[in-house]
Design goal:
CATH class of one domain: Alpha Beta
Radius of gyration: 23 Å
Low-confidence stretches: none
CATH architecture of one domain: 2-Layer Sandwich
Strand content: 25-35%
Number of strands: 27
CATH topology of one domain: GMP Synthetase, Chain A, domain 3
Distance between the termini: 52 Å
Structural class: alpha/beta
Oligomer: single chain
Shape: globular
């Protein structure tokens, strides 16, 4: 399916869409509609403000916001200024923010007033030239801001006065236009950070062209059900995550649809929004679909407008898929992807009945190989092997990580492939099925969590001499995080609660272990390498009884 406008770079493509739909809502945020024309004007002013404050084309700007219209304004404004967006989760601690700011040498950061205190701490070691701050209700009508303040419905935080700090609401009121959008379509538009097997997250540079083409392809998967220009997406997936970008954000960048934004997951608010705005698309991880099915007030809402329900981020349990179909009469469509592949590698077609458990058919933009992991030799059809992915164009390297790049990207027969480190199989019809993971990455609530990152944090504790972190299968959240810890011999009185509290101060909440088990020793190979597979095997035997 051809996009309604020509795809070039992000600012030019969005401006073409906005010119066709100036008065149409691009986004609904907390009950307020923001038209394409207004969003375009705010993004233009934001871009001009960044440039006046010294941000130059190619500079990196950290985006430290939840799903909100301010996120859209800032992200589009960064693109219009020719800079590179670095979107991160708003639950990151100062430790995480400092690492990413240093890794990208970020010139500026956009944050909420509630996490301004964290930014102030980070700025002591990484002096951002500009800090743009926004309250969650700052762009809403005055009466909504008043009632939010009067009834204490809008969380807020303290913001210090300084020459480097500016409020987003003031920035978008300033006159001025950014220069004509002229970014090279193959230059980086953003750097998305993803978990993996290393101590720190890895930056994935994504070009303008690659993001737009992948978003168009993946959103068009619903074209058999309705016109993509009429798409109303409830974007529950976070916009800092590739799932939220390619299945929700893309609808306003390329197609002229509408996105419903909510800053946090609230089931009643989400289902009320579907009912009120007649949303056609819903995007979520498996845990969210389970929560909806088990919600006490589900029958109070009319979700009949939904025609395309998409699940990504983790394996969808078959009991959830079956219960959803029985409850609503339409299926959950499944897909598989990664940040390195800019979202979808395969998706369930919406014009047919898909086999149970399948992740979908390989998208036209992607080429895959299923190989024996050790030697990268192809396996027979139907056999399990590691999934390799190629596309034109494609992400070809991590940001500032040559060793990790060499491990994750491999050239075969003159083509560059990304090693997903996931074991899959393919049937005669071409459908892919998830089998297992080959590396020590934990999937928790749709997030990819690095086991080694948590281990390194634990080993920073003065009482810990060694640690091993694994994922424990859980039907509600995918995998729960469990840490096995060896304490120094002369240490007494340290509990699992102490170590969990230590982790909470140093990492995002979704990375914190749910369980701590103390051991006298951990299994290691003859060369001293930690054998997580043996620990996982012990857990499997324990669960089997």
């Amino acid at each position: 399916m051809q996009p309604p406008v020509e795809i070039t770079n992000i600012p030019e493509t969005f401006d073409r869409v906005a010119a066709l739909n100036p008065d149409k809502p691009a986004a609904w945020y907390l009950g307020t509609a923001f038209s394409y024309g207004r969003l375009q004007q705010m993004a233009d002013s934001f871009a001009a403000g960044l440039l006046r404050r010294g941000v130059e084309p190619g500079d990196r700007v950290v985006l430290y916001l939840p799903n909100c219209v301010q996120w859209l304004v800032a992200w589009l404004g960064i693109q219009k200024a020719g800079a590179v967006a670095v979107p991160i989760t708003p639950v990151y601690t100062p430790f995480d923010v400092a690492y990413i700011a240093g890794d990208t040498d970020a010139r500026a950061i956009v944050c909420t007033d509630r996490n301004y205190g964290y930014v102030a701490k980070v700025r002591k070691e990484h002096p951002f030239q500009t800090v743009v701050v926004s309250g969650m209700a700052d762009v809403l009508p005055g009466y909504k801001r008043f009632f939010g303040w009067a009834f204490d419905k809008v969380p807020n935080g303290r913001v210090g006065k300084s020459a480097h700090t500016v409020w987003l609401a003031d920035l978008i009121k300033e006159p001025g236009q950014p220069p004509a959008a002229g970014s090279d379509p193959d230059s980086p538009a953003e750097i998305i950070y993803t978990g993996g097997t290393t101590k720190h997250p890895k930056g994935v540079p994504i070009s303008h062209r690659l993001l737009l083409e992948c978003a168009h392809e993946q959103i068009s998967a619903s074209a058999a059900l309705f016109e993509v220009t009429d798409n109303m997406v409830l974007g529950s997936a976070p916009l800092f995550h590739i799932l939220g970008q390619t299945t929700a954000l893309g609808t306003i960048l390329v197609h002229g649809g509408t996105i419903i934004l909510q800053p946090k997951v609230n089931l009643d608010a989400m289902m009320h929004a579907v009912t009120t705005h007649q949303a056609t698309t819903f995007v979520g991880v498996p845990a969210l679909y389970r929560m909806i099915l088990e919600h006490d007030r589900l029958d109070q809402y009319d979700l009949s407008s939904l025609k395309y329900c998409f699940c990504g981020g983790d394996v969808l349990p078959q009991d959830i898929a079956k219960r959803w179909l029985e409850r609503f009469g339409w299926p959950i469509y499944i897909g598989y992807g990664a940040s390195e592949t800019v979202g979808g590698v395969c998706m369930s077609p919406a014009d047919r009945q898909n086999p149970p458990g399948a992740m979908g058919l390989v998208l036209p933009s992607k080429q895959v190989r299923i190989v024996e992991p050790a030697f990268l030799t192809p396996v027979e059809l139907g056999e399990s092997g590691e999934l390799l992915v190629h596309s034109e164009p494609m992400v070809s390297a991590y940001w500032n990580k040559p060793q990790e790049t060499a491990e994750a990207f491999v050239e075969l027969d003159g083509k560059l492939f990304y090693r997903t480190a996931d074991v899959v199989r393919q049937d005669e019809q071409g459908y892919l099925y998830f089998v297992d993971r080959t590396v020590d990455t934990i999937k928790h609530k749709g997030y990819r969590v690095s086991a080694s990152e948590i281990e390194c944090i634990l080993q920073d504790h003065q009482a810990v001499v060694a640690s091993c972190v694994v994922g424990i299968p859980d039907e509600k959240v995918g995998e729960r995080i469990k840490a096995y810890v060896v304490l120094k011999k002369d240490i007494k009185g340290i509990t699992g609660y102490d170590l969990i509290a230590f982790c909470r101060k140093r990492m995002a909440a979704y990375k914190v272990p749910q369980y701590i088990e103390f051991r006298d020793m951990l299994p290691k190979s003859k060369v001293g390498k930690l054998l997580r597979r043996e620990v996982r095997g012990e857990e499997a035997s324990r669960r089997a009884g």
